[in-house]
Specification:
The chain is an alpha+beta fold and 382 residues long. Helices cover 28% and strands 27% of the residues. The chain has two domains: 2-57 and 162-229 and 318-374, 3-Layer(bba) Sandwich (FAD/NAD(P)-binding domain), CATH 3.50.50; 103-155 and 231-316, D-Amino Acid Oxidase, Chain A, domain 2, CATH 3.30.9. The chain binds glycine.
Length: 382
């Protein structure tokens, strides 16, 4: 039989335990955790590592702002944030790379009296209300025209590019293989295994396939309702070099957020645009971010403009990530649709997907994110 006893032909290369499709933050984190626990992993991306939404991410770690309503997403996000210290220190050990990660706290700034009254009466868990004078004393980069702010000390940021680089080196160190510049075009069952085909005609075999392709989840070969539920939402982000002392906190205003890096760079993000797969930075996007950033932090008027970036966040039709086994193709596991929270949710997603694959353990926290929710009738449990 051509190709040996398993019946694969000569185009099929070495079998992996797990193929991960998508080398953004989620795919890299999963590849790292799987490889760390001894699995043979191969990671594919049509682009360079972290070349999709990840490279345009501000890396804000703020579950009580990004997913404030009580429910499974807030629970998952808070759990992931609580894993971050350990995640970063393990990564440092495994990669030797220092990742900039700081729990600076976030300040949600109120610029209108009505918003301030409402915010003061509805401070979320872990938040503290500061009136105008105390907020400006705490964060002197804010103008005295604000109407107060909520401080959340547990929040912060991580530099996404450094995190991706560290995950990549750590995964490589544990034997993961990277196939960048290869677009996965099809996934098919081959007995107990799965075969993927890349658009250069190569084929690859694995026991399991993880789809971590972000906005491109529907384009890698499994056409089902879960992958069809993902759509791109564009986010533009600018980076400034600050003229004086940078803000001390991550700032969250009505029209933008501001993230101060240690090197004096300040990120101002981000637009939210439903424009399909259009990955352009635009004059309107950059202008809106400049206006919003300068209004929130007037010193931004004197900043140097460094760059504008753009990424496509993977949104879903119900606003929740899709994490768990595909209902239409056994052996395929989804880890996509993280929308605004990919960087925040990377540690918990990687841990729970790894448990699912290596220990066959489906953590109850994943119940609300099961891909089958798109296939079952309303009111029926997946
Ligand atoms: N998490 C921030 C954003 O998506 O813009």
């Amino acid at each position: 039989m051509e190709g040996g006893e398993r019946g694969y032909d000569r185009h099929v290369t070495e079998r992996a335990d797990v193929i991960v499709i998508g080398a953004g933050i989620i795919g890299c984190a999963i590849a790292y955790q799987l490889a760390r626990r001894g699995a043979a992993v191969r990671l594919f991306d049509a682009r360079a590592i972290g070349g999709g939404a990840t490279q345009a991410s501000a890396g804000v770690l703020a579950p009580y702002i990004e997913s404030p309503s009580p429910g499974p997403l807030l629970d998952l996000a808070a759990r992931s944030l609580s894993m971050y210290d350990r995640f970063i220190s393990d990564l440092h050990q495994d990669s030797g790379i220092d990742v900039e990660y700081r729990l600076t706290g976030t300040l949600e700034v109120m610029t209108e009296p009505d918003a301030a009254t409402h915010a003061k009466e509805n401070v979320h868990e872990g938040g503290e209300w500061f009136d105008t004078a105390s907020a400006v004393a705490l964060e002197p980069s804010l103008p005295p025209t604000i109407h107060g702010a909520i401080l959340t000390r547990a929040h912060g940021y991580v530099v996404a590019s450094q995190l991706t680089e560290a995950l990549t080196w750590a995964a490589l160190r544990y034997g993961a293989e990277m196939e960048t510049g290869r677009r996965v075009a099809a996934i098919e069952r081959r007995g107990d295994d799965l075969e993927i085909r890349t658009d250069d005609g190569e084929r690859w075999i694995a026991g399991r396939v993880v789809i971590a392709a972000g906005s491109w989840a529907a384009q890698v070969g499994v056409a089902d309702r879960a992958s069809a539920a993902v759509r791109p939402i564009r986010g533009q982000l600018i980076r400034l070099a600050w003229p004086a002392r940078s803000p001390r906190h991550v700032l969250w205003g009505p029209d933008c957020y501001v993230v101060p890096w240690r090197d004096g760079s300040v990120l101002v993000g981000a637009t939210v645009e439903d424009v399909g797969f259009d990955e352009r930075t635009t004059a309107a996007g950059v202008r809106d971010l400049l206006d919003a950033g300068c209004e929130l932090v007037p010193a931004a008027w004197g900043a140097t403009f460094r760059e504008a970036r753009v990424g496509l966040r993977p949104a879903t039709s119900d606003g929740l990530p899709i994490i768990g086994p595909s209902g239409s193709m056994p052996g395929v596991i989804y880890a996509t649709g993280h929308y605004r929270n990919g960087i925040l949710l990377a540690p918990v997603t990687a841990a729970l997907v790894t448990d699912l694959i290596l220990d066959n353990r489906f953590d109850p926290a994943l119940q609300g994110f099961h891909p089958l929710r798109f296939s079952v009738k309303e009111g029926q449990a997946p």
